[in-house]
Amino acid sequence: MPEGDVVHKTAARLHAALAGRPLVGVELRWPNLPEVELRGRDTLEVVARGKHLLHRIAGGITLHTHLRMEGSWRIRPTGEVTPVVARRADIRAIVAGEQWAAIGYRLGMLELLPTANETRVVGHLGPDILSEDFDAGRAVANLQSAGDRTIGSALLDQRNVAGIGTMFAAEALFATRTPPWQPAADSDVEAIVASARAMMQRSMQQPIRDVMERVSTLEESAVHARSGRACVRCAGTVRVAMIGEPPQDRTMFYCPTCQGGLGPTDDGKRQNPLNSGPRNTR
């Protein structure tokens, strides 16, 4: 799933292409949407909130989308959005100005709602880790209040802090030598949050290499997607196991040597490096 840095960069790209200009064409391929004429209305702004995109349109309307696992927005000149291009079955939305069009592929969520009601879809989120006015104190307090819940799963809970996904959770925990299955209340959550924010801010400085990019950017990950490979710190073996309660459990990459031993969901069996052959992990 794209993490907060990708969503923020996507919002910035959509805003630059569409804001302050009238929409000349809108096609939303999603069931049960209210009948609202959007053509002729100006795009006011496109902003990110955690992993959510809020496209605010004149007249008090917000187009709310979420990329989920496979979604992305692509920008291309409006004149290139031919019937052949628009016919693709994986397109969920086309929102076009006179010069540029935004095409939403495989979006995981799409809805129209009054801008005044945005709290219905993002009000449950914790502080956005990439927001300019990020409330670190509140994020830390949220995580500390998770008590015996593992710090890894608490970090991935968007109600505590919005925008962190499996990549930056794993990297921040490794950077601070924190066992992912350690209780949140026993963890240095202030250092973990600061580490994750710094990494994600660095990623924000990297340009989107491709308009279809759905992955976060790090110079080189230390543990994420490195199971079966040597740890960059201790030369031990990086592993991956599930963390959190099903069905919300997620993968967690970590180094047992640097981070407190095998996780309770790790069977200890040999794990081949990703993409090197058959996998024995989910």
Automatic annotation (TrEMBL):
GO molecular function terms attached to this record: class I DNA-(apurinic or apyrimidinic site) endonuclease activity; damaged DNA binding; oxidized pyrimidine nucleobase lesion DNA N-glycosylase activity; zinc ion binding
Domain (Formamidopyrimidine-DNA glycosylase catalytic) ranges: 2-95
Key words, A-Z: DNA damage, DNA repair, DNA-binding, Endonuclease, Glycosidase, Hydrolase, Lyase, Metal-binding, Multifunctional enzyme, Nuclease, Zinc, Zinc-finger
Region (Disordered): 261-282
Presence of the UniProt keyword Nuclease in the record: yes
Catalytic activity: 2'-deoxyribonucleotide-(2'-deoxyribose 5'-phosphate)-2'-deoxyribonucleotide-DNA = a 3'-end 2'-deoxyribonucleotide-(2,3-dehydro-2,3-deoxyribose 5'-phosphate)-DNA + a 5'-end 5'-phospho-2'-deoxyribonucleoside-DNA + H(+)
Superkingdom to which the source organism belongs: Bacteria
Polar residues: bias regions: 272-282
Pfam short name (any one): Fapy_DNA_glyco
Domain FPG-type residues, every copy: 222-260
Family that this chain belongs to: Belongs to the FPG family.
PANTHER family: ENDONUCLEASE 8
Name of the featured protein: DNA-(apurinic or apyrimidinic site) lyase
Record organism: Branchiibius hedensis
